[in-house]
Amino acid sequence: MQVKVLHYIYLSISIGLAIALFGGLVSPYFSPAEFWPIAFLGLAFPFMFLANVMFLIFLVFIKKKMYVLQTVVLVLALLKTPAFIQFNAKTLPEPKPKRTLNVINFNTHYMGAYDYAGGDSGYFFNMLDTIKPDIICLQEFANLGGNYEMPMFKRFFKQFKHFYNVNADALSTTFPTGYGVCIFSRYPIVNKGFLELENQNNNLTVFADVLVDTDTIRVVNTHLKSIVFDKHDYRTMENLKEIEHTNIGAVHRIFAKLKYAFQSRAKQADKIRERLQNTKHKVILCGDFNDSPTSYSYLTIRGNMKDAFRESGKGMSRTYIGKMPSFRIDYILHDNAWNSYNYQTNTLNFSDHKMVSCTIALPN
After folding, report:
1. Residue-range definition of the domain harbouring residue 147
2. 130 in the same domain as 204
3. How far is CA 132 from CA 68, 72, 361, in A?
4. How far apart are CA 140 and CA 358, in angstroms?
5. Pick from 187, 217, 215, 190: which is nearest to 334 by CA?
6. Which of 42, 92, 78, 105 is nearest to 265 (CA)?
7. SS (H, E, C) 70-107
8. Is-contact 216 209, C-beta < 8 A?
């Protein structure tokens, strides 16, 4: 009798974990604006993958034949792992392509204007000197009442004063708008504007049509809807480790914020995809998606574009390094006809995001 009970327990766990992982696999194909619960499974995909691996090992160890279900769903899940981990980083080939663009994408957290203790400014500018960027896409930069007298801002504006730029505030008749979404370009900008404004006076998307030699390239910089957790929410997540201290109302509030953010990002993603489909130029798209590679937002925006991390990344990428569980939520995407190399991330202690960069080779 006891053996039969254990069998049903193992079977229930096996089926539950398999369903959760499969739900994460298919979640990018369902808009949270229409069916939001599945978005949580997409967010939990890496954890469900590990849980299924561990349970599979356990089943093999105790010699239970029900491990077939775990094996099948894990094989399917392996198709998604290149979005999370890469082994063969590609560097620029020899001879080097004649036309390349060095691209940086970075949520600067306002250069630490509000909570920076100092220490990384020299490293940051040394990295910029090393990368020699042609295109810089920044979020949370200098629109939202930033401390423009801060030495970091002064030095940045001085170093890149010769760059053309698009600033979300400069495109709008209201202030503030866009939480510091900006594009800087070494090459002339011949057109610029908003690509989407689903969340006005909040997260949004700008574009700049950049003239590289005789080619016009549309550079897009997006900041998808943030979750906007506050200190009470972070405290609640800490207390989840101790069941007796968990406040159910506070947990419900966290889920409500996640649900709203999932739905808002889905609407932004739909609008961005619609606009990209009507764009006659080839595209480089950077941004802080606030969403993982197993999300509707990522899949919708990416379309058939290439992901620079998948093209030339190495190891297990994570770009958000704040108080929530770490994910890759900052991206550089580009036209499918191009190749990208030298993908890298750099940690700066004034931001809760890593700086992402790569080199995109353009056809001659």
Report:
1. 90-362
2. yes
3. 51, 46, 15
4. 20
5. 217
6. 42
7. HHHHHHHHCCCHHHCEECCCCCCCCCCCCEEEEEEEEE
8. yes
Give the tokens for residue 45: 């995909």
Position 144 confidence tier, pLDDT thresholds 50, 70, 90: very low
- Is 305 in contact with 335 (CB distance < 8 Å)? yes
Q: What is the CATH number of the domain that holds 152?
A: 3.60.10.10
pTM exceeds 0.85: yes
182 and 263 inside one domain? yes
Phi, then psi, of 8 in degrees rounded to 5 = -70, -35
> Of 207, 138, 218, which is closest to residue 179 (Cα–Cα)?
138
Strand, coil or helix: what is 195? strand
In this predicted structure, the answer to whether residue 233 has a pLDDT above a threshold of 70 is no
Q: Are strands 135-139 and 99-107 parallel, antiparallel or unpaired?
A: parallel
Q: How confident is the model at residue 292 (pLDDT cuts 50, 70, 90)?
A: very high
Q: According to DSSP H, which parts of the chain are helical?
A: 2-26, 37-43, 45-61, 67-77, 121-131, 151-159, 231-239, 248-277, 296-302, 308-312
281: its two tokens:
């130029």
Question: What are the tens digits of pLDDT across the range 61-76?
Answer: 887 777 788 899 999 9
